[in-house]
Amino acid sequence: EAQVTQNPRYLITVTGKKLTVTCSQNMNHEYMSWYRQDPGLGLRQIYYSMNVEVTDKGDVPEGYKVSRKEKRNFPLILESPSPNQTSLYFCASSLSSGPSYEQYFGPGTRLTVT
Amino acid sequence: LAKTTQPISMDSYEGQEVNITCSHNNIATNDYITWYQQFPSQGPRFIIQGYKTKVTNEVASLFIPADRKSSTLSLPRVSLSDTAVYYCLVGRSGANNLFFGTGTRLTVIP
Question: Closest partner residue to B100 among A4, A42, A107, by Cβ?
């Protein structure tokens, strides 16, 4: 089954404790991205990747890192999480870049930073 | 990447047709218009995409006027399960970042 998976689905952590949210897709997609969703602010892009070893900042990249060492995986790293990073996070992938390509979203990761 | 403007929210009764309009005044020649649906606590999912005139699939219709500065997503005879947030995206192949915005929250009332 074609899908995007994220782990963990729920995470509660404390300020400053490094964490990684994994994202994997099995569709051989080139383009992958991370979003955060907050009430009233909609869906905002954090980082995106055009292909292996090619990543760039989205609209809200501060406090996040990403890497794309393999085509299927695109982990999101919070080196020193803060309470303002409490949010619902989505990973997405598509065949190539641009809104004309259908984005496939993962199930989401709800992160709480205390 | 063309920014879009949508109503923040809409209410509709079950069985009615719902039309959600998206404004994209700065749309470029090669831009496509794509709509997504998001249920609570789930990722958005693709509904429909078009370039001009009218596109219809089993879920919705998309109407695009000749000047392409707006588009209308039409949901026929909505049910309670159509309660969701609907996002309009505009852009072309090769555009790097995507702008979803806040979308339109549709609430279907029994």
Answer: A42
Q: What are the angstrom distances between the C-alpha of A71 and each of A26, A47, A54, A92, B68?
A: 9, 15, 10, 13, 35
Sheet holding B45-50, edge to edge: B9-13, B104-109, B84-91, B32-38, B45-50
Pairing state between β B84-91 and B104-109 = antiparallel
User: What does the DSSP 8-state code read for residue B101?
Assistant: B
What is the least distance, in Å, from the CA of A80 to any CA of chain B?
25
Residue A40 · residue B85 · CB < 8 Å:
no
* Residues near B67 by beta carbon (within 8 Å), at least 6 away in sequence: none
Structure tokens belonging to residue A62: 């501060």
Residue A24's DSSP bridge partners are: A5, A73
Nearest by CB to residue B93, choosing from A58, A98, A105, is: A98
Name residue, tokens 């998001």.
Answer: B38
pLDDT digits 0-9 by tens, A15-53: 999 999 999 999 999 999 999 999 888 889 999 999 999
